[in-house]
Design brief:
Elements lengths: L21 H4 L6 H6 L29 H6 L8 H4 L4 H11 L18 H5 L3 H20 L3 H14 L3 H13 L3 H14 L4 H13 L3 H14 L5 H24 L8 H8 L18 H13 L3 H13 L5 H14 L3 H14 L4 H13 L3 H14 L4 H13 L3 H14 L4 H13 L3 H14 L4 H13 L3 H14 L5 H13 L3 H14 L4 H13 L3 H14 L3 H23 L1 H8 L1
Helix pairs in contact: 7-8, 8-9, 9-10, 9-11, 10-11, 11-12, 12-13, 12-31, 13-31, 15-16, 16-17, 17-18, 18-19, 19-20, 19-21, 21-22, 22-23, 23-24, 23-25, 24-25, 25-26, 25-27, 26-27, 27-28, 27-29, 28-29, 29-30, 30-31, 31-32
Subcellular location: Mitochondrion outer membrane
Main location: mitochondrion
Membrane topology: Single-pass membrane protein
Length: 598
């Protein structure tokens, strides 16, 4: 991913900018497997979606003046068109009476407005109805202040009978909210919003009522509208929107996962993780005899070297079924595939069996540590690395992967030490050099970091990865011309790698303000890997940035289809639902939506 996204996964680093742009900020990491795979696979995560759980409910307050009483007192604020025109039969009758200059019926006794019948109210002039309504509203406010909620509800109800003003509905909704009658809150605020769609206080009360009745999707839409109408000034609105967004995404993710079959990640993702381990001898051809367990194991290793991961997984399974003599290694790899498909618990079963068979197979401890890291158990994670070191202190894989753990937990100095150790033990492993450079960059040692990359460019002249991540550092420093050249070179050296295309797309979008060019580059990255989650996520964000919400949703849907774990699925759903909320806002508030576009 880009130089301004968070660091992601094992073989390659992703520098972090102090000021990410909107697209890059929204394309941050998802979960541990990304860290455990490669920084290049920084997928669609909860970037920009921080979910707070503090109680958003607050004691509602009634409003002292109705919309019409404000007009009487010379309020100069512009009212919505919905508020100007009569929207109920009562208002239309009143307006008609006023136009005819009707006089008050002298037979009407208006001494007790609190019990006056609808028939009697209908015989009053508009002026009298407005006066009595305002009197009742004032009495209702007094009862509200005295915490006599039912009395306040009665008085607001009678005020509505005289004049169905949105303020009266909203004030009555405030009382209903306090006594826990949230369905009534929704009904009253909806009436208020029909009369005045931009009535923020009513919208807020309805949003909280939706949340309190478990209607999180509706609450999310209302809180989104509040954020936009308020100009994103109220942090509590944003927090409430995000909280409900998370609940919606969580529920939908669980429903989808009930019937979803496990699937392997994209080739880019798989390669990133598997390339983070030094390779042993790899068979150059397929075995002639494929009937035995050992032959199936050799076949799996061959497919693995060819990046034919689905076939490799199937062959490892057959090797285990046929009792291969390489059982520990086969179980290790089956556990690895299972882990990358998102089932850490099931993967642990294979890793545990592999260790029982061969307690000295270091790689299995490293991978088991990755699962513990994903589960949030740091103690078990580091214990696995210590055990691995006790078995073979000269294995460079241990230090590289432990360095990654330090890196993602922000302990960059410790990470740098492990990367150096990994380099000392195996100088030809390019990702140790890349990650060491990134660690220096994170520590603020920019000059040292750049020197690490310049040396790596000389030592690994044919590495597209070095050029790609060097380009990210340059992009982060806004050295756009040089970054552009680095990404171009990375593409030439390894056209099958989708990541330089994506980085170049972000550069083109940020630097040249060329969304069409950025889109074209992202589509080229999909030619390299049609299931590249990063490219799909980036395209969704590019379209969103351009206001092409329907097109953005199309790509978010693809992200949902490709997501493997609950965390990934929840993240992708969150983006789709957030985009849908913008569509709902555009539908419900067309004028405000047009103004935003201008």
């Amino acid at each position: 991913m880009s130089a301004t996204s968070l660091p992601a996964t094992v073989p390659a680093p992703v520098p972090v900018s102090n000021g990410p742009n909107a697209i890059q900020k929204l394309l941050q990491d998802k979960d541990w497997k990304l860290y455990a795979a490669v920084a290049s696979v920084s997928l669609l995560a909860g970037a920009g979606l921080y979910f707070l759980t503090r109680d958003s409910s607050s004691s509602p307050t009634p409003e002292a003046k109705s919309s019409k009483s404000k007009k009487k007192k010379g309020n100069k604020k512009k009212k919505s068109s919905a508020a100007k025109e009569p929207t109920t039969p009562e208002e239309k009758t009143a307006e008609s009476s006023a136009s005819e200059k009707a006089t008050e019926n002298k037979d009407v006794d208006d001494s007790n407005v609190e019990t006056m019948s609808k028939e009697t109210i209908a015989r009053l002039t508009e002026k009298k109805r407005l006066e009595h309504a305002n009197t009742l509203k004032t009495r209702g406010n007094s009862m509200y202040s005295a915490k006599k909620w039912e009395e306040a509800i009665r008085l607001y109800s009678q005020a509505i009978a005289f004049n169905p003003d949105p303020v009266y509905y909203s004030n009555r909704a405030a009382c209903y909210s306090i006594v826990g009658k949230f369905d009534n809150v929704i009904e009253d605020t909806t009436f208020a919003l029909k009369m005045n769609p931009t009535y923020v206080k009513a919208l807020g009360r309805r949003a909280h009522a939706y949340e309190n009745t478990g209607k999180h999707q509706e609450a999310m839409h209302d809180f989104t509208a509040l954020c936009i109408l308020d100009g994103f000034k109220n942090e509590s609105f944003a927090q409430s929107m995000e909280r409900n967004l998370k609940k919606v995404a969580d529920v939908k993710a669980k429903e989808i996962l009930k019937n979803r079959e496990e699937r392997l990640p994209s080739t880019t993702f798989m390669s990133a993780y598997l390339d983070s381990f030094r390779k042993g001898d790899v068979p150059e051809t397929k075995p002639e005899d494929e009937e035995t367990g050992d032959a199936q194991f050799q076949l799996a290793e061959f497919y693995l070297s060819q990046r034919r991961y689905q076939e490799a997984m199937e062959a490892y399974n057959k090797a285990i079924e046929l009792n291969t003599t390489h059982m520990a290694q086969a179980l290790n790899m089956r556990g690895t595939f299972t882990f990358l498909m998102g089932d850490g618990k099931k993967a642990l079963v294979d890793f545990d069996k592999a260790i029982e068979i061969d307690p000295n197979y270091v790689q299995t401890y490293i991978k088991r540590g990755s699962i513990f890291m994903e589960q949030g158990d740091a103690l078990k994670t580091f214990n696995e690395f210590e055990t691995a070191i006790s078995i073979d202190a000269e294995d460079p894989n241990i230090y590289y992967h432990r360095g990654q753990v330090f890196f993602i937990t922000g302990e960059y100095e410790a990470a740098a030490k492990d990367y150096i150790k990994s380099i000392e033990l195996e100088p030809k492993f390019v990702f140790s050099h890349i990650q060491y450079g990134v660690a220096q960059y994170k520590l603020g040692n920019v000059s040292d970091a750049m020197n690490v990359f310049k040396k790596a460019l000389k030592d690994f002249p044919d590495s597209g990865d070095v050029n790609n991540y060097y380009g990210e550092l340059l992009l982060d420093q806004q050295q756009f011309d040089q970054a552009y050249e680095s990404f171009d070179k990375a593409i030439k050296l390894r056209p099958s790698n989708p990541l330089p295309y994506i980085n170049k797309a972000l550069l083109v979008f940020q630097w040249k303000q060329d969304p069409a060019g950025a889109e074209k580059l992202c589509l080229q990255s999909l030619d390299a890997d049609p299931e590249c989650d990063v490219a799909i996520a980036t395209l969704g964000q590019l379209f969103l940035q351009q206001g092409k919400i329907e097109k953005a949703i199309e790509y978010f849907e693809k992200s949902i289809e490709m997501a493997r774990t609950e965390a990934e699925l929840t993240s992708a759903l969150g983006f789709r639902e957030a985009a849908n909320s913008q569509l709902v806002f555009a539908r419900d508030y067309p004028e405000q939506s047009k103004a935003l576009k201008r």
